[in-house]
Amino acid sequence: MNKDLIGNLDFEKINAKLFDFLDHSPVPFFAVKNMKTALQEAGFTELYESARWQLEAGGAYFVTRNDSALIAFRIPRKDFTGFQIMASHCDSPVFKIKPNADITVENKYVKLNVEKYGGALYASWLDRPLSAAGRVVVETEDGIEAKLVNIDRDLLIIPNLAIHFNRQVNEGYKFNVQKDMLPLLGEISDFSGGQQESLGERPDVDTARSQGDKPKDRFLRLIAKEAGVRPDQILDTDLYLYSRTRACHVGMENEYIVSGRLDDLQCAFSSLQGILLAEPSGSVAVHCVFDNEEVGSGSKQGAGGTFLYDVLHRINASLGRREEDYLRAVASSFMVSADNAHAVHPDHPDKSDPTNRPYMNEGIVIKYNASQKYVTDAVSGAIFRALCKKAGVPCQTFTNRSNLAGGSTLGNIAQGQVSLNAVDIGLAQLAMHSACETAGARDTAFLVEAARVFFSGSVENTGDGKYNLRF
Ligand code: CO
After folding, report:
1. 342 Cα–ligand 1 center, Å
2. Residue 189 falls within a domain, yes or no?
3. pTM for this one?
4. In the chain, N or C: fewer CB atoms in 10 Å?
């Protein structure tokens, strides 16, 4: 396995690799594709859910579902006691481009019809270069095929309304996605010379005045060109906006990293590096990245679906083990649900709990919530603290203020499929769900190292409440 990735916590090197991953993973399909490439380069074998699995002790494998969720696992050479699972998510709050997206305005502008995906901070999407990425599904001779597409240039903008038209805007603004968040694609007029004529089009009129007059699918033509297919071959699409701002450092000493999608690609990346560096011994190491966390995880590729359950069962069966062996293994398994956490905000320190105050660069945040939005309890918290101690990385704690509801994540949702000891953790960040989030420059390396130690060890249940920890 590739060992040159962190050495002894090389923060700069790890962040450079993280930046590359963030910049090239505009939507979950690309995050999964980039993880696949890294796993293949490290010698992992790709499996397909539709094919028969013949697994071997000592083997390393991965499987994807919907091209937007991925599970990679490494089987130890000797018989295993359980599964060491780290789960994160690769989707982020964003705007999805609707079918028939073109909207023409005043016989002049073309803008795109979008709807919200998850709970984004809308204002952060305004006045910054955007583009579109996702997948198109095209007709083939035998059926259909999905193709990934990313228009890799500054293409779109959602322009703010000038303050002169809304003098009260800085006192607070209520966004209407259908009115305020539609990105501008370009002009109807023959801007580049002759192109419009060659498309054989006549100018559209404002859609408000042209009921039943289908817009001319300029956007779909652009997407088809990018995908290398004819527009009429495209049967359907899953396309999203993304921010073009590249990941970078900020701060006097480069203390912070800034990028879109840190929630939760920072954790997905750390988990991936951890499994690449690990040396699994007593348990199967399972790196698990789900889609659709930001919209409730209730899809086949989300934490509420059967993906993890199915993969664990197939590992068990393929190695000639019975159902009871599976249940025994789950009792000696552990899940780290890794999703970013809120750091104390420099302008709003009062939003954080009085006694549990996570800061960026101070290590992995263990999250607690009495209502079980976070699944951490005394047992799983203790196991994770012991792990951090062994790994030599700092950890800290998060709870919501008792008067605030706070967020949720995939850990407790996954329990419905595979019920096991689990801890909710994350890396401290600011501006969660902004198009541009801020996190600590040291914390990625801490999680990579904790993940490496976690994936190399095991948690053996020797009676309810008693565990042998082998880290
Ligand atoms: Co998240």
Report:
1. 11
2. yes
3. 0.93
4. N
